Amino acid sequence: MKISVHAVGRMKAGPERELAERYFERFAKSGPAVGLEFAGITEIAESRAQSAGERQRDEGSRLQAQLQPGTALILLDERGKSLSSQDFANRIGQLRDGGRKALVLAIGGADGHDPSLRDQAELVLSFGALTWPHQLVRVMLGEQLYRVATILSGHPYHRS
């Protein structure tokens, strides 16, 4: 299953970018052994629309345009469901084992995701009730995807 990340906002050079790249590289190397292929990160600029709702719709339509039929969608959102790493790995493993060919994990803009995307998502996932800067969310997502690969392969990186 090809896994890609869609992110509103651009990562500037710095330690957060380097750390995120390190985890995504680890995932890219370890994922194929468990049937997960990292297809990269797509960045889009934040919408400049006047209202929050218009910005959500604009950013959401740009994500929607990239989704191929049958692609699973997971949205990262502070109001989403909080899962353990093991449960997150199990959900991704179920999508893979259920025959899904692609998965997009989407990091929204400052106003969050358009409600229409929330309705079609397989999962709305939270990294906690706190609001995180998108740079740190990318680091955490990269690390969790690497952890997913290690959990699914039985590697000792993840110790329960």
Describe the structure.
- This protein is of the alpha/beta class.
- The protein has one domain: SPOUT methyltransferase, trefoil knot domain (Alpha/beta knot), CATH 3.40.1280.
- The protein has 5 helices and 5 strands, in the order E-H-E-H-E-H-E-H-E-H.
- A 5-stranded parallel β-sheet has the order 2-1-4-3-5.
- Helix 1 (15-30) links the parallel strand 1 and strand 2.
- Helix 1 packs parallel to helix 5 (134-153) and helix 3 packs across helix 5.
- The relative contact order is 0.25.
Write the layout of secondary structure elements.
Layout: E1 2-8, H1 15-30, E2 37-44, H2 52-66, E3 72-82, H3 85-97, E4 102-107, H4 115-120, E5 123-126, H5 134-153
Parallel strand pairs: 1-2, 1-4, 3-4, 3-5
In short:
With 160 residues, this protein is of the alpha/beta class.
The gyration radius over C-alpha positions equals 15 Å
Strand line-up in the sheet with most strands? 2-1-4-3-5
The number of distinct structural domains comes to 1
What is the residue-averaged pLDDT?
Answer: 94
CATH class: Alpha Beta
Order of helices and strands: EHEHEHEHEH
Tell me the CATH superfamily: SPOUT methyltransferase, trefoil knot domain
CATH topology, by name, is: Alpha/beta knot
Helix count equals 5
Strand content: 15-25%
Beta-strand segment tally: 5
CATH architecture verdict? 3-Layer(aba) Sandwich
The description of the largest β-sheet is:
5 strands, parallel
**Portion in helices:** 40-55%
From the N-terminal CA to the C-terminal CA, the straight-line distance is 25 Å
Given the helix and strand composition, which structural class is it?
alpha/beta
Shape, please? Answer: globular
